[in-house]
Design a protein that fits this description.
Length: 469
Protein backbone atom coordinates (compact mmCIF):
# COMPACT_ATOMS: atom_id res chain seq x y z
CA UNK A 1 0.00 0.00 0.00
CA UNK A 2 2.98 2.27 0.62
CA UNK A 3 3.97 1.92 -3.04
CA UNK A 4 0.45 2.87 -4.12
CA UNK A 5 0.53 5.96 -1.89
CA UNK A 6 3.83 7.12 -3.37
CA UNK A 7 2.55 6.49 -6.90
CA UNK A 8 -0.69 8.38 -6.14
CA UNK A 9 1.24 11.39 -4.84
CA UNK A 10 3.53 11.35 -7.87
CA UNK A 11 0.57 11.12 -10.24
CA UNK A 12 -1.24 13.98 -8.52
CA UNK A 13 1.83 16.22 -8.64
CA UNK A 14 2.42 15.35 -12.30
CA UNK A 15 -1.16 16.18 -13.31
CA UNK A 16 -0.99 19.49 -11.43
CA UNK A 17 2.44 20.66 -12.56
CA UNK A 18 3.44 19.02 -15.87
CA UNK A 19 1.00 21.04 -18.07
CA UNK A 20 2.63 24.25 -16.80
CA UNK A 21 6.07 22.93 -17.73
CA UNK A 22 5.19 21.94 -21.30
CA UNK A 23 7.20 23.91 -23.88
CA UNK A 24 5.51 25.88 -26.62
CA UNK A 25 5.91 25.07 -30.29
CA UNK A 26 8.44 26.67 -32.64
CA UNK A 27 8.33 30.46 -32.48
CA UNK A 28 7.07 32.69 -35.24
CA UNK A 29 10.66 33.54 -36.24
CA UNK A 30 11.43 30.04 -37.53
CA UNK A 31 10.49 30.34 -41.20
CA UNK A 32 12.24 28.31 -43.90
CA UNK A 33 10.48 29.95 -46.84
CA UNK A 34 12.90 32.91 -46.96
CA UNK A 35 15.83 30.52 -47.53
CA UNK A 36 13.91 28.40 -50.02
CA UNK A 37 12.80 31.44 -52.03
CA UNK A 38 16.40 32.64 -52.33
CA UNK A 39 17.56 29.26 -53.63
CA UNK A 40 19.28 28.14 -50.42
CA UNK A 41 17.72 24.71 -50.44
CA UNK A 42 20.17 23.22 -47.96
CA UNK A 43 19.64 25.98 -45.38
CA UNK A 44 15.88 25.81 -45.90
CA UNK A 45 15.91 22.04 -45.35
CA UNK A 46 18.03 22.52 -42.21
CA UNK A 47 15.51 25.00 -40.79
CA UNK A 48 12.67 22.62 -41.62
CA UNK A 49 14.49 19.78 -39.84
CA UNK A 50 15.19 22.00 -36.82
CA UNK A 51 11.52 22.99 -36.72
CA UNK A 52 10.56 19.32 -36.66
CA UNK A 53 12.99 18.67 -33.82
CA UNK A 54 11.47 21.54 -31.80
CA UNK A 55 7.98 20.27 -32.58
CA UNK A 56 8.94 16.89 -31.10
CA UNK A 57 9.20 18.59 -27.70
CA UNK A 58 5.71 20.12 -27.76
CA UNK A 59 2.59 18.92 -25.91
CA UNK A 60 1.18 17.26 -29.05
CA UNK A 61 4.10 14.88 -29.35
CA UNK A 62 5.32 14.57 -25.76
CA UNK A 63 2.62 12.07 -24.67
CA UNK A 64 3.68 9.73 -27.49
CA UNK A 65 7.24 9.35 -26.20
CA UNK A 66 6.41 7.01 -23.26
CA UNK A 67 4.06 5.15 -25.59
CA UNK A 68 6.96 4.67 -27.99
CA UNK A 69 8.94 3.14 -25.13
CA UNK A 70 6.17 0.56 -24.81
CA UNK A 71 6.11 -0.04 -28.56
CA UNK A 72 9.86 -0.45 -29.05
CA UNK A 73 11.15 -1.17 -25.55
CA UNK A 74 8.64 -3.64 -24.12
CA UNK A 75 9.19 -6.33 -26.71
CA UNK A 76 11.35 -9.40 -27.05
CA UNK A 77 15.08 -8.82 -27.08
CA UNK A 78 16.16 -8.06 -30.62
CA UNK A 79 19.30 -6.89 -32.33
CA UNK A 80 20.03 -3.27 -33.15
CA UNK A 81 19.39 -4.05 -36.81
CA UNK A 82 15.77 -5.06 -36.22
CA UNK A 83 15.27 -2.09 -33.88
CA UNK A 84 16.65 0.21 -36.59
CA UNK A 85 14.23 -1.22 -39.17
CA UNK A 86 11.21 -0.88 -36.89
CA UNK A 87 12.09 2.66 -35.85
CA UNK A 88 12.75 3.68 -39.44
CA UNK A 89 9.36 2.26 -40.45
CA UNK A 90 7.77 4.28 -37.64
CA UNK A 91 9.37 7.54 -38.80
CA UNK A 92 8.61 6.82 -42.47
CA UNK A 93 4.94 6.37 -41.53
CA UNK A 94 5.02 9.79 -39.90
CA UNK A 95 6.74 11.29 -42.94
CA UNK A 96 4.20 9.87 -45.39
CA UNK A 97 1.33 11.43 -43.41
CA UNK A 98 3.05 14.82 -43.22
CA UNK A 99 3.81 14.80 -46.93
CA UNK A 100 0.22 13.90 -47.79
CA UNK A 101 -1.31 16.49 -45.42
CA UNK A 102 1.08 19.17 -46.62
CA UNK A 103 0.47 18.61 -50.31
CA UNK A 104 -3.29 18.54 -49.64
CA UNK A 105 -3.07 21.81 -47.71
CA UNK A 106 -1.03 23.48 -50.46
CA UNK A 107 -3.44 22.34 -53.18
CA UNK A 108 -6.71 23.11 -51.38
CA UNK A 109 -5.72 26.22 -49.42
CA UNK A 110 -6.87 24.65 -46.16
CA UNK A 111 -4.71 24.95 -43.08
CA UNK A 112 -2.31 22.14 -42.34
CA UNK A 113 -3.97 19.81 -39.87
CA UNK A 114 -7.47 20.99 -40.76
CA UNK A 115 -8.53 17.34 -41.05
CA UNK A 116 -8.38 17.24 -37.26
CA UNK A 117 -11.52 19.36 -37.28
CA UNK A 118 -13.41 16.57 -39.07
CA UNK A 119 -15.27 14.35 -36.57
CA UNK A 120 -14.79 11.24 -38.72
CA UNK A 121 -10.99 11.61 -38.83
CA UNK A 122 -10.73 12.38 -35.12
CA UNK A 123 -13.00 9.48 -34.22
CA UNK A 124 -10.78 7.15 -36.22
CA UNK A 125 -7.68 8.40 -34.40
CA UNK A 126 -9.42 8.09 -31.04
CA UNK A 127 -10.50 4.51 -31.77
CA UNK A 128 -6.92 3.63 -32.73
CA UNK A 129 -5.61 5.12 -29.47
CA UNK A 130 -8.26 3.30 -27.46
CA UNK A 131 -7.30 0.02 -29.14
CA UNK A 132 -3.71 0.61 -28.07
CA UNK A 133 -4.93 1.48 -24.57
CA UNK A 134 -6.90 -1.74 -24.22
CA UNK A 135 -3.78 -3.59 -25.33
CA UNK A 136 -1.84 -1.90 -22.52
CA UNK A 137 -4.54 -2.94 -20.06
CA UNK A 138 -4.30 -6.55 -21.30
CA UNK A 139 -7.78 -6.71 -22.83
CA UNK A 140 -6.62 -8.56 -25.94
CA UNK A 141 -5.54 -11.48 -23.83
CA UNK A 142 -9.02 -11.77 -22.35
CA UNK A 143 -11.79 -11.19 -24.79
CA UNK A 144 -10.63 -11.45 -28.38
CA UNK A 145 -10.05 -14.50 -30.57
CA UNK A 146 -6.41 -15.56 -30.86
CA UNK A 147 -6.13 -14.63 -34.55
CA UNK A 148 -7.46 -11.11 -33.92
CA UNK A 149 -5.19 -10.80 -30.87
CA UNK A 150 -2.17 -11.45 -33.07
CA UNK A 151 -3.22 -8.82 -35.61
CA UNK A 152 -3.98 -6.17 -33.01
CA UNK A 153 -0.80 -6.87 -31.07
CA UNK A 154 1.16 -6.21 -34.26
CA UNK A 155 -0.18 -2.63 -34.15
CA UNK A 156 1.93 -2.16 -31.05
CA UNK A 157 5.20 -2.65 -32.87
CA UNK A 158 5.57 -6.39 -33.61
CA UNK A 159 6.28 -5.88 -37.27
CA UNK A 160 7.16 -3.21 -39.78
CA UNK A 161 3.52 -2.64 -40.72
CA UNK A 162 2.56 -2.04 -37.09
CA UNK A 163 5.41 0.43 -36.58
CA UNK A 164 4.49 2.21 -39.84
CA UNK A 165 0.84 2.49 -38.73
CA UNK A 166 1.80 3.87 -35.32
CA UNK A 167 4.07 6.41 -36.99
CA UNK A 168 1.21 7.45 -39.28
CA UNK A 169 -1.02 8.13 -36.28
CA UNK A 170 1.80 10.10 -34.63
CA UNK A 171 1.92 12.29 -37.74
CA UNK A 172 -1.73 13.23 -37.29
CA UNK A 173 -1.31 13.85 -33.56
CA UNK A 174 1.68 16.15 -34.12
CA UNK A 175 -0.19 18.35 -36.63
CA UNK A 176 -1.66 20.83 -34.07
CA UNK A 177 1.85 21.86 -32.98
CA UNK A 178 3.41 22.36 -36.39
CA UNK A 179 3.63 26.13 -36.01
CA UNK A 180 5.19 28.64 -38.41
CA UNK A 181 7.71 26.26 -39.96
CA UNK A 182 5.01 24.61 -42.04
CA UNK A 183 3.10 27.84 -42.58
CA UNK A 184 5.97 29.38 -44.51
CA UNK A 185 6.86 26.09 -46.17
CA UNK A 186 3.31 25.49 -47.42
CA UNK A 187 3.10 29.05 -48.73
CA UNK A 188 6.30 28.38 -50.70
CA UNK A 189 4.97 25.06 -52.04
CA UNK A 190 1.64 26.62 -53.08
CA UNK A 191 3.41 29.52 -54.81
CA UNK A 192 5.93 27.40 -56.72
CA UNK A 193 3.50 24.51 -57.37
CA UNK A 194 6.49 22.15 -56.90
CA UNK A 195 4.68 19.36 -55.10
CA UNK A 196 7.54 16.80 -55.19
CA UNK A 197 9.86 19.32 -53.52
CA UNK A 198 7.17 20.17 -51.00
CA UNK A 199 6.56 16.53 -50.18
CA UNK A 200 10.29 15.99 -49.74
CA UNK A 201 10.67 18.96 -47.39
CA UNK A 202 7.67 17.85 -45.35
CA UNK A 203 9.28 14.44 -45.07
CA UNK A 204 12.43 16.13 -43.72
CA UNK A 205 10.22 17.92 -41.20
CA UNK A 206 8.86 14.56 -40.07
CA UNK A 207 12.42 13.24 -39.74
CA UNK A 208 13.11 16.09 -37.31
CA UNK A 209 10.07 15.14 -35.25
CA UNK A 210 11.20 11.52 -35.36
CA UNK A 211 14.64 12.09 -33.77
CA UNK A 212 13.55 11.38 -30.15
CA UNK A 213 11.56 8.35 -31.33
CA UNK A 214 14.59 7.10 -33.25
CA UNK A 215 16.80 7.40 -30.17
CA UNK A 216 14.22 5.66 -27.99
CA UNK A 217 13.55 2.91 -30.50
CA UNK A 218 17.18 2.07 -31.25
CA UNK A 219 18.97 2.76 -27.97
CA UNK A 220 16.34 2.18 -25.27
CA UNK A 221 17.01 -0.61 -22.81
CA UNK A 222 14.75 -3.61 -23.37
CA UNK A 223 12.14 -3.65 -20.62
CA UNK A 224 11.24 -6.95 -18.97
CA UNK A 225 7.84 -8.20 -20.04
CA UNK A 226 6.75 -9.57 -16.69
CA UNK A 227 6.58 -8.43 -13.11
CA UNK A 228 4.26 -6.26 -11.08
CA UNK A 229 6.00 -2.98 -11.89
CA UNK A 230 5.76 -3.62 -15.64
CA UNK A 231 2.01 -4.12 -15.32
CA UNK A 232 1.85 -0.80 -13.50
CA UNK A 233 3.83 0.92 -16.26
CA UNK A 234 1.45 -0.50 -18.85
CA UNK A 235 -1.54 0.80 -16.88
CA UNK A 236 -0.04 4.28 -16.77
CA UNK A 237 0.57 4.17 -20.53
CA UNK A 238 -2.98 2.95 -21.09
CA UNK A 239 -4.39 5.82 -19.04
CA UNK A 240 -2.34 8.35 -21.07
CA UNK A 241 -3.70 6.86 -24.29
CA UNK A 242 -7.32 6.99 -23.11
CA UNK A 243 -6.90 10.62 -21.99
CA UNK A 244 -5.31 11.50 -25.33
CA UNK A 245 -8.16 9.86 -27.24
CA UNK A 246 -10.82 11.70 -25.23
CA UNK A 247 -8.98 15.00 -25.64
CA UNK A 248 -9.12 14.67 -29.43
CA UNK A 249 -12.79 13.69 -29.33
CA UNK A 250 -13.45 16.71 -27.11
CA UNK A 251 -12.07 19.11 -29.70
CA UNK A 252 -13.99 17.45 -32.56
CA UNK A 253 -17.47 17.62 -31.02
CA UNK A 254 -18.83 21.03 -29.92
CA UNK A 255 -20.95 19.65 -27.06
CA UNK A 256 -17.95 17.87 -25.52
CA UNK A 257 -15.72 20.89 -26.05
CA UNK A 258 -18.25 23.23 -24.43
CA UNK A 259 -18.76 20.86 -21.48
CA UNK A 260 -15.04 20.72 -20.69
CA UNK A 261 -14.69 24.50 -21.15
CA UNK A 262 -17.66 25.05 -18.84
CA UNK A 263 -16.22 22.90 -16.05
CA UNK A 264 -12.77 24.47 -16.51
CA UNK A 265 -14.24 28.00 -16.34
CA UNK A 266 -15.93 27.17 -13.05
CA UNK A 267 -12.86 25.78 -11.27
CA UNK A 268 -10.26 28.11 -12.84
CA UNK A 269 -6.68 27.56 -13.94
CA UNK A 270 -4.87 27.67 -10.57
CA UNK A 271 -7.46 25.98 -8.31
CA UNK A 272 -8.11 23.53 -11.14
CA UNK A 273 -4.50 22.35 -11.04
CA UNK A 274 -4.79 21.34 -7.38
CA UNK A 275 -8.30 19.91 -7.69
CA UNK A 276 -7.50 17.74 -10.69
CA UNK A 277 -4.22 16.68 -9.08
CA UNK A 278 -6.21 15.49 -6.07
CA UNK A 279 -8.73 13.64 -8.25
CA UNK A 280 -5.91 11.93 -10.15
CA UNK A 281 -4.27 10.85 -6.88
CA UNK A 282 -7.63 9.52 -5.66
CA UNK A 283 -8.03 7.54 -8.87
CA UNK A 284 -4.64 5.88 -8.34
CA UNK A 285 -5.52 5.05 -4.72
CA UNK A 286 -8.83 3.53 -5.88
CA UNK A 287 -6.99 1.19 -8.23
CA UNK A 288 -6.29 2.81 -11.60
CA UNK A 289 -2.76 1.40 -11.67
CA UNK A 290 -2.20 -1.41 -9.18
CA UNK A 291 -5.40 -3.37 -9.80
CA UNK A 292 -5.93 -5.52 -12.88
CA UNK A 293 -8.69 -5.89 -15.47
CA UNK A 294 -7.76 -9.57 -15.66
CA UNK A 295 -9.11 -10.41 -12.21
CA UNK A 296 -12.74 -10.78 -11.07
CA UNK A 297 -15.65 -8.53 -12.01
CA UNK A 298 -15.42 -6.54 -8.77
CA UNK A 299 -11.76 -5.65 -9.29
CA UNK A 300 -12.49 -4.89 -12.96
CA UNK A 301 -15.18 -2.37 -11.92
CA UNK A 302 -12.97 -0.76 -9.26
CA UNK A 303 -10.04 -0.36 -11.65
CA UNK A 304 -12.36 1.06 -14.32
CA UNK A 305 -13.60 3.65 -11.79
CA UNK A 306 -10.02 4.55 -10.88
CA UNK A 307 -9.01 4.90 -14.53
CA UNK A 308 -12.09 7.07 -15.18
CA UNK A 309 -11.11 9.40 -12.30
CA UNK A 310 -7.54 9.83 -13.56
CA UNK A 311 -8.64 10.35 -17.17
CA UNK A 312 -11.27 12.87 -16.06
CA UNK A 313 -8.62 14.73 -14.07
CA UNK A 314 -6.21 14.88 -17.01
CA UNK A 315 -8.85 16.08 -19.49
CA UNK A 316 -10.17 18.78 -17.15
CA UNK A 317 -6.64 19.81 -16.18
CA UNK A 318 -5.70 20.39 -19.81
CA UNK A 319 -8.95 22.30 -20.36
CA UNK A 320 -8.32 24.45 -17.28
CA UNK A 321 -5.04 25.66 -18.79
CA UNK A 322 -7.12 27.94 -21.03
CA UNK A 323 -9.44 29.15 -18.25
CA UNK A 324 -9.17 32.31 -16.16
CA UNK A 325 -6.81 32.07 -13.16
CA UNK A 326 -9.73 32.31 -10.72
CA UNK A 327 -12.75 30.10 -11.33
CA UNK A 328 -16.25 31.54 -11.56
CA UNK A 329 -17.49 29.06 -8.95
CA UNK A 330 -15.20 30.42 -6.23
CA UNK A 331 -16.24 33.99 -7.04
CA UNK A 332 -19.93 33.02 -6.71
CA UNK A 333 -19.24 31.33 -3.37
CA UNK A 334 -17.41 34.43 -2.13
CA UNK A 335 -14.15 32.55 -1.70
CA UNK A 336 -12.28 34.63 -4.28
CA UNK A 337 -12.37 38.10 -5.78
CA UNK A 338 -13.29 38.56 -9.43
CA UNK A 339 -10.28 39.26 -11.67
CA UNK A 340 -9.30 42.93 -11.61
CA UNK A 341 -6.81 42.95 -14.47
CA UNK A 342 -8.03 44.16 -17.88
CA UNK A 343 -8.71 41.51 -20.50
CA UNK A 344 -8.21 41.47 -24.25
CA UNK A 345 -11.32 42.70 -26.06
CA UNK A 346 -12.48 40.72 -29.08
CA UNK A 347 -15.02 42.82 -30.94
CA UNK A 348 -16.28 39.84 -32.94
CA UNK A 349 -15.80 36.07 -32.98
CA UNK A 350 -16.84 34.47 -36.29
CA UNK A 351 -18.66 32.27 -36.87
CA UNK A 352 -20.83 32.23 -33.77
CA UNK A 353 -21.47 28.89 -32.09
CA UNK A 354 -23.42 26.46 -34.29
CA UNK A 355 -23.59 29.03 -37.08
CA UNK A 356 -22.05 29.29 -40.53
CA UNK A 357 -19.43 31.85 -41.42
CA UNK A 358 -20.83 34.95 -43.12
CA UNK A 359 -18.48 36.71 -45.52
CA UNK A 360 -20.94 39.62 -45.64
CA UNK A 361 -20.75 40.18 -41.88
CA UNK A 362 -16.98 40.00 -42.01
CA UNK A 363 -16.81 42.59 -44.81
CA UNK A 364 -19.18 44.84 -42.86
CA UNK A 365 -16.78 44.71 -39.91
CA UNK A 366 -13.86 45.67 -42.17
CA UNK A 367 -15.88 48.51 -43.69
CA UNK A 368 -16.76 49.80 -40.22
CA UNK A 369 -13.10 49.76 -39.18
CA UNK A 370 -12.13 51.67 -42.32
CA UNK A 371 -14.84 54.26 -41.69
CA UNK A 372 -13.56 54.75 -38.13
CA UNK A 373 -9.94 54.85 -39.31
CA UNK A 374 -8.96 51.78 -37.32
CA UNK A 375 -6.60 48.97 -38.32
CA UNK A 376 -7.90 45.42 -37.96
CA UNK A 377 -6.34 42.46 -36.16
CA UNK A 378 -7.64 39.10 -37.40
CA UNK A 379 -6.75 35.95 -35.45
CA UNK A 380 -7.35 32.69 -37.35
CA UNK A 381 -7.56 29.83 -34.84
CA UNK A 382 -8.93 26.34 -34.29
CA UNK A 383 -9.76 24.31 -31.21
CA UNK A 384 -7.30 21.60 -32.25
CA UNK A 385 -4.44 24.12 -32.62
CA UNK A 386 -2.06 24.05 -29.65
CA UNK A 387 -0.19 27.26 -30.49
CA UNK A 388 -3.52 29.10 -30.82
CA UNK A 389 -4.24 28.29 -27.19
CA UNK A 390 -0.77 29.47 -26.22
CA UNK A 391 -1.49 32.85 -27.78
CA UNK A 392 -4.79 33.10 -25.89
CA UNK A 393 -3.22 32.04 -22.62
CA UNK A 394 0.16 33.80 -22.67
CA UNK A 395 0.15 36.64 -25.20
CA UNK A 396 -3.24 38.32 -25.44
CA UNK A 397 -3.72 38.78 -21.65
CA UNK A 398 -0.39 40.65 -21.33
CA UNK A 399 -0.90 44.33 -20.34
CA UNK A 400 1.37 45.68 -23.12
CA UNK A 401 -0.54 43.71 -25.75
CA UNK A 402 -3.93 44.86 -24.41
CA UNK A 403 -2.77 48.47 -24.37
CA UNK A 404 -1.42 48.49 -27.93
CA UNK A 405 -4.35 46.46 -29.31
CA UNK A 406 -6.83 49.02 -28.00
CA UNK A 407 -6.59 51.00 -31.26
CA UNK A 408 -7.49 47.93 -33.36
CA UNK A 409 -10.78 46.33 -34.31
CA UNK A 410 -10.07 42.76 -33.20
CA UNK A 411 -11.74 39.79 -34.91
CA UNK A 412 -11.31 36.11 -34.10
CA UNK A 413 -12.00 33.63 -36.91
CA UNK A 414 -12.82 30.09 -35.78
CA UNK A 415 -11.46 27.72 -38.46
CA UNK A 416 -12.11 24.52 -36.48
CA UNK A 417 -14.73 23.31 -38.92
CA UNK A 418 -14.06 23.76 -42.60
CA UNK A 419 -16.67 25.35 -44.87
CA UNK A 420 -16.44 26.88 -48.34
CA UNK A 421 -16.89 30.51 -47.33
CA UNK A 422 -14.34 30.16 -44.55
CA UNK A 423 -11.86 28.43 -46.85
CA UNK A 424 -12.29 31.29 -49.32
CA UNK A 425 -11.52 33.83 -46.58
CA UNK A 426 -8.37 31.95 -45.57
CA UNK A 427 -7.26 31.86 -49.19
CA UNK A 428 -7.99 35.58 -49.50
CA UNK A 429 -5.69 36.29 -46.53
CA UNK A 430 -3.09 33.70 -47.52
CA UNK A 431 -3.54 31.59 -44.40
CA UNK A 432 -1.54 28.36 -44.78
CA UNK A 433 -1.43 27.24 -41.15
CA UNK A 434 -2.78 28.04 -37.72
CA UNK A 435 -2.49 30.21 -35.80
CA UNK A 436 -2.17 33.11 -38.22
CA UNK A 437 -2.66 36.69 -37.06
CA UNK A 438 -3.24 38.91 -40.10
CA UNK A 439 -3.60 42.68 -40.21
CA UNK A 440 -5.57 45.16 -42.30
CA UNK A 441 -4.40 48.77 -42.32
CA UNK A 442 -6.65 51.68 -41.41
CA UNK A 443 -6.99 52.38 -45.15
CA UNK A 444 -8.37 48.88 -45.76
CA UNK A 445 -5.25 47.24 -47.25
CA UNK A 446 -4.51 43.60 -46.36
CA UNK A 447 -0.92 43.62 -45.13
CA UNK A 448 1.52 40.87 -46.04
CA UNK A 449 3.84 42.23 -43.37
CA UNK A 450 3.68 42.29 -40.43
CA UNK A 451 2.07 38.90 -39.88
CA UNK A 452 2.26 36.44 -36.99
CA UNK A 453 2.35 32.70 -37.65
CA UNK A 454 2.69 30.49 -34.61
CA UNK A 455 3.14 31.40 -30.97
CA UNK A 456 4.79 34.74 -30.21
CA UNK A 457 5.56 36.09 -26.74
CA UNK A 458 3.94 39.38 -25.60
CA UNK A 459 6.89 41.74 -26.16
CA UNK A 460 7.65 40.80 -29.80
CA UNK A 461 3.92 40.54 -30.49
CA UNK A 462 3.49 44.13 -29.29
CA UNK A 463 6.32 45.22 -31.59
CA UNK A 464 4.44 43.67 -34.52
CA UNK A 465 1.28 45.54 -33.54
CA UNK A 466 3.17 48.83 -33.53
CA UNK A 467 4.11 48.36 -37.20
CA UNK A 468 0.44 48.48 -38.28
CA UNK A 469 -1.05 51.88 -39.07
Amino acid sequence: MKKVGILAAACGIAVALVPWLMPTGPSAGLDASQFLASGSLFLGAAVVFAGGLLTSLTPCVYPLIPITVSVFGARKAEGRGKALLLTSSYIIGMGVVFSALGVLAAKTGQAFGALLGHPGVVTGLAVFLLVLATSMFGAFELALPYGLQQRLNSVGGAGLAGAFLMGSVSGFLAAPCTGPVLTGLLAFVAKTANMPLGAGLLFIYALGIGVPFFLIGVFTVRLPRGGEWMEWVKSVLGIILVALAISYLRDAFPWARDTVKGVAAQIGRVPGAFITGGIAALGVVVGAVHLSFKSNAREFAIKAAGVALVVFAIVIRVGAMDAAPTGALWVKLGWAQPPQAPSFLWHQVMPAKQASFSAQEFDKALALARTEGKPVLIDFFADWCAACKELDRETYPAPEVISEAGRFLSIKIDATNSEDSLDALMERFGVEGLPTVAFVSSSGEILKNPRVTGFLEPKPFTEELKKVR
